[in-house]
Amino acid sequence: MVSTASGKNGTWRNWGGNVSARPARQVTPASVEELAAAVRRAREDGLKVKAVGTGHSFTSIAATDGVLIRPQLLTGIRDIDRTSMTVTVEAGTPLKRLNAALAREGLSLTNMGDIMEQTVSGATSTGTHGTGRESGSIAAQIRALELVTADGSVLTCSEQENPDVFAAARVGLGALGVVTALTFAVEPLFLLTAREEPMPLERVLAEFDQLWAENEHFEFYWFPHTGSTNTKRNNRSAGPERPVGRLAGWFEDEFLSNGVFQLAQWAGLAAPATVPAIARISSRALSARTYTDIPYKVFTSPRRVRFVEMEYAVPRAALTETLRELKAVVDRSGLRVSFPVEVRTAPADDITLSTASGRDSAYIAVHMFRGTPYQAYFTAAERVLTAHEGRPHWGKVHTRDADYLARVYPRFGEFTALRDRLDPERLFQNDYVRRVLGA
User: Fold this and answer.
1) Quick check: 97 and 86 in contact, CB under 8 A?
2) Could you tell me the pTM of the whole model?
3) How many Å apart are CA 433 and CA 436, to the nearest integer?
4) Terminal alpha carbon distance of the chain
5) What is the rounded distance in angstroms from the CA atom of residue 187 to the CA atom of residue 110?
6) CB-based contacts of 130: which residues, under 8 Å, 6+ apart?
7) DSSP collapsed to 3 states, 214-265
8) Cα–Cα distance between 397 and 379 in angstroms, integer?
9) Which of 79, 145, 217, 269 is the most interior residue, by most CB within 10 Å?
10) Residue 366 neighbours by CB distance under 10 Å
11) Burial class (CB within 10 angstroms; exposed 0-12, middle 13-18, buried 19+) of 87
């Protein structure tokens, strides 16, 4: 399998096109033993080690000039345990393959993000999440994991075995070792009914607590330069299955959400003054719809228009105030923002560096079309988000460093102490890890 994030002449590039690296060598191990041997050899040669999935992170979290480990041969399901209701899967397995394989077995993850191109280890190591009232990120569904550490040994972790490593390595940033397998909790396949409808922003903000409380999964997209949102509520259903029709699905999810949206982004890039008018048209393009299907067909959707993204988690109670401040900044700034702002939630979890660690969280994600200057917008947004003790998504653009992160993560020192024990020579360090965790 050729990764979408690969480049020519040994250069690696991420999906967003904003990060590249030229590793000294790239390794594609076909077994855990081969991966462990590659780690030991890199250490002997004095080279740093990073593993990379499909490159869906917008930070340089996976970039290295040392040894780049490509896990595309470490794929597939190792075991399904219907007694404990878990599935153990190789680290390089794309989420889309896992979701389809589980569905064939009559099983599903409880919650997931809206993109399923990532590998399971890449998604969990960066804290990828969907939206949920009670159900958390993909990493919060991990029940055990396997990790190759800096000395080349293989460590198995769970709540019972190496629990301190388990607490941290579920969202490990690639800083503790290379994840080789993950065991997830699963449940019998179920149906979700999705209700999508436009709603004025002020109504969403005024009723947010109620919308959150009444729905298992609530999210919305606000279109900057407008007072409009598109909302989505996903709730479990007894059925019957009523999927989006093939023609309607193509028209809304491919033609409008990807094809026409791509043309609108190009128009906005060529003539920034037209962006507010395009935003008003875009906000009215999608009509209300309701459909019922299996989870991954409801939670996820194709994302073919390439972008760059920043996302922060703020305390859920601070969401409405934070979003109003962000809107005020955009309205008075002269910025031209052509992508909607995505808002989701997650319950508190017990993972050391999860963005929802220890607190109920709301996520505010800002995007810009790839190729559009994004720094001014992201800087302005980041100023608002950090004023509310925001925690940046580990795989999305941000400028925070270890000093800031130690203030917003109560267990930050617990993670860095574990890193000192597992990787004292910093085999798994790169510039990004050094910035966010300290040297």
Assistant:
1) no
2) 0.91
3) 5
4) 35
5) 7
6) 111, 112, 113, 114, 137, 138, 217, 299, 344
7) HCCEEEEEECCCCCEEEEEEEEEECCCCECCCHHHHHHHHHHHHHHHHHHHH
8) 10
9) 145
10) 28
11) buried
What does the alpha-carbon distance between residue 438 and residue 21 come to, in Å, rounded to a whole number?
A: 21
378: part of which helix (H) or strand (E)? helix 375-386
Tokens of 84: 């404990």
CA–CA distances in Å: residue 356 to residues 22, 82, 171, 222, 345: 33, 29, 11, 22, 9
pLDDT at 255: 46
* 162 burial level (CB within 10 Å; 0-12, 13-18, 19+): middle
Using CB atoms within 10 A of its CB, is residue 46 exposed (0-12), middle (13-18) or buried (19+)?
exposed
- pLDDT tens for 12-71 read 999 888 899 999 999 999 999 999 999 999 999 999 999 999 999 999 999 999 999 999
**Residue 394 in tokens:** 């580990």
- pLDDT beneath 70: ranges in the chain: 1-9, 246-270, 283, 285-286, 304
**Residue pLDDT, tens place only, 270-280:** 677 777 777 77
pLDDT digits (tens, 9 = 90+) for 325-358: 999 999 998 888 888 899 999 999 999 999 999 9
Q: What is the enclosing helix (H) or strand (E) of 432? A: helix 431-437
Strand partners, 232: 196, 219
Residue 37: partners with Cβ closer than 8 Å, 6 or more residues away: 29, 152
